[in-house]
Design brief:
single chain; 415 residues; alpha+beta; Jelly Rolls; 4 domains; 5-stranded antiparallel β-sheet; 13 strands; 20% helix; globular
């Protein structure tokens, strides 16, 4: 079931709140949990809502969701998941920003399931309710369509915690129309049944199409993956500037994280996603479980424009894997002077100025590296001049020649 979520970034992943482009809470405080119980192997978070003292309800509002031109006159659905153990009422309001009278209000009653016997974890918990709104169709006279979303949460027990996750806004027939296998199956079903299914006005809509869509999910996934894996040569239209012509199986430019981990094996090394000096909660530097890659912990890799280590996220770790595949400096091309130099530059920022001293006649077993303190990750001021960077030494440890000592020293600024 392939859909495109119109919510993007923090709107979908629930990583930040209270700005013009994110959800804004009213009458509640928010705690962001590390993972979503319903979708743990993803970037999605879940939030814990606690009602303000004296409040009997709270709101989550997304003032303006800007949509695509393709969303004009196409019915849109809002879906989310909520857990209210003692039950309550959930009201979603979808409103066309340009036409205020065009509004869809959906009220859902959630039963009391506070008994600990049924409080199972994750998707096994019947306390989670997945709620789907009625469709809203947007038509605008000028500009692009935009949607206002307001969620009202009224728990039966105001003192208990409420959990919210997986907000999705998508076109009503996204799943049906984007299943590559569905048309070939439906063509074998008598036309009278197809027409009756399309004209059905109850819930869920187009039930036969949706049933076939669910039955062919795995087949569609296999088909879509096979198409993505196809390798194209120049005669078949391959263009290095066009990512759609590249194979997601063998081309590191477009491969997913899991495929990058597999591809990295062919660079002659165990794939590395972060360094041992990372000050995060994950103990194993070779941790490759993508469900744990996104947190607020510090991660010592790739290059940023300041001296603070970048945030631990999937993109940063993908960049490090792609670097390994592009150059092989942690594998088949390790043990060379360029490998040491480029590995050290992973821990530098700005102009990445690096001075290398290596005399293979007088001192063949030692390589000395020097970098300005204000271009070296983790430095805090001029007091580090003359000291080494643990981050730089950690990064080059995978690239240095066997038996060779690599030293590092931070120098005065060149600015």
């Amino acid at each position: 079931m392939a859909i495109t979520n119109r919510l993007i970034g923090p709107q979908a992943y629930l990583t930040s709140f209270g700005t013009q482009t994110t959800w804004t809470p009213t009458n509640a405080t928010i705690t962001i949990d590390a993972i979503s119980e319903l979708y743990p192997d993803s970037e999605y978070k879940q939030i814990e809502l606690t009602l303000s003292p004296g409040a009997s309800s709270c709101f989550l509002d997304l003032a303006v969701l800007h949509l695509n031109d393709s969303d004009l006159n196409a019915p849109l659905i809002f879906l989310s998941a909520i857990k209210m153990p003692s039950g309550g009422t959930f009201i979603s309001r979808l409103r066309n920003v340009e036409e205020e009278q065009n509004e869809v209000i959906e009220t859902s009653l959630i039963v009391n399931l506070s008994d600990s016997v049924v409080n199972a974890p994750g998707v096994l918990s019947p306390q989670w309710s997945i709620l789907r709104s009625d469709p809203i169709t947007l038509a605008v006279d000028s500009g692009t369509p935009a949607l206002d979303i307001s969620l009202e949460i009224i728990p039966n027990e105001p003192s208990e915690s409420i959990y919210f996750t997986l907000p999705l806004c998508y076109q009503q027939f996204d799943a049906v129309f984007r299943n590559n296998v569905l048309p070939s199956v439906m063509v074998n079903i008598p036309e009278v049944f197809r027409n009756e299914d399309i004209s059905f006005l109850g819930k869920p809509d187009v039930p036969l199409h949706r049933f076939v869509d669910i039955c062919t999910l795995t087949l569609d996934s296999v088909y879509s993956t096979a198409i993505d894996y196809i390798f194209q040569d120049v005669s078949e239209g391959f263009k290095d500037s066009d990512n759609t012509t590249k194979s997601t199986l063998v081309n590191q430019d477009v491969a997913t994280f899991e495929t990058l981990v597999w591809l990295a094996k062919f660079s002659g090394t165990r794939p590395i996603t972060r360094f041992e000096s990372s000050l995060d909660s994950l103990g194993d530097p070779f941790q490759l479980d993508s469900s744990q890659l996104n947190s607020s912990a510090a991660l010592r890799l790739t290059s940023y424009l300041d001296l603070n280590p970048p945030v631990l996220d999937l993109t940063a770790q993908e960049n490090l894997l792609r670097w390994q595949l592009d150059y092989g400096y942690y594998g088949k091309n390790a043990g060379t002077l360029p490998a040491v130099q480029e590995a050290a530059k992973l821990m530098l920022t700005g102009d990445k100025e690096l001075v290398t001293e290596y005399d293979f006649r007088a001192e063949p077993w030692v390589i000395h590296l020097y970098s300005p303190w204000d271009q070296t990750f983790g430095s805090i001021g001029e007091e580090v001049i003359g000291l080494s960077s643990e981050l730089v030494l950690d990064a080059v440890s995978y690239a240095r020649p066997l038996g060779v000592l690599v030293t590092h020293e931070m120098t005065a600024s060149n600015g």
